[in-house]
Amino acid sequence: MRIYIAGKYTDADRKQIDKNVEKADQAAREIARRGHTPFCPHKLTNYWENDPVLKFEDFLRIDKEWLRLCDAVLMLDNWQESGGAREELEFASALGLRVFWSVDEVPNCASR
Q1: Please, which residues have CB within 8 angstroms of residue 106's CB and are 6 or more apart in sequence?
Q2: Which letter, b or e, does each residue of 43-73 get, where b requires 16 or more Cβ atoms within 10 Å of its Cβ?
Q3: 17 to each of 52, 62, 72, 89, how far by Cα in Å?
Q4: How far apart are CA 74 and CA 6, in angstroms?
Q5: What phi and psi, each to the nearest 5 degrees, are found at residue 93?
Q6: Secondary structure class of 52 (helix, strand, coil)
Q7: Distance (Å, whole) CA 104 – CA 82
Q8: For 83-110, what is each residue's pLDDT tens digit?
Q9: Which of 16, 76, 83, 98 has the highest count of CB atoms within 10 angstroms of its CB?
Q10: Which phi and psi angles does 39 have, rounded to 5°?
Q11: Which domains does the chain have, with CATH numbers?
């Protein structure tokens, strides 16, 4: 499955943003270990928050285009703290994507 990672990115403290990115990256690596294809928007747009042209709506537009290509979404444990992740969940649900609430719910399809 192609699995989109949704969770909090934004914070006033850059160190917390880095922690949020690391949390998403760890989940993406575990999804890959389980034989699936992760998509981690945290890694794609890391450090874009200071771009003077890009706005929240631009990030959501990009995220939704990637969600259209996915089979499922993984909601990280901090997703409720993020307006973007809440919107991603709503969009994924409207698309009929499977929702995982923990990486432990993702089936292991890896042949090792």
Answers
A1: 3, 30, 31, 34, 36, 72, 74, 100
A2: eebbeeeeeeeeeeeebbeebeeebeebebb
A3: 18, 19, 24, 20
A4: 6
A5: -65, -40
A6: coil
A7: 22
A8: 999 999 999 999 999 999 999 999 999 7
A9: 76
A10: -125, 120
A11: 2-105 (3.40.50.10400)
Residue 76 in tokens: 């990280």
Structure tokens at 93: 């649900």
The amino acid that residue 62 corresponds to is I
pTM for the predicted model, two decimal places: 0.93
Question: Which tokens is 78 given?
Answer: 């901090």
The two tokens of residue 82 are 């993020």
Rounded Cα gap, residues 2 and 58, in angstroms: 22
53: tokens are 């042209």
Query: Tokens representing 65?
Result: 């285009």
Fill in the amino acid letter for 56: F
18-63 tens-digit pLDDT: 999 999 999 999 999 999 999 999 999 888 888 999 999 999 999 9
Within its chain, how far is the Cα of 39 from the centroid?
A: 7
Enclosing H/E stretch for 73? strand 72-75
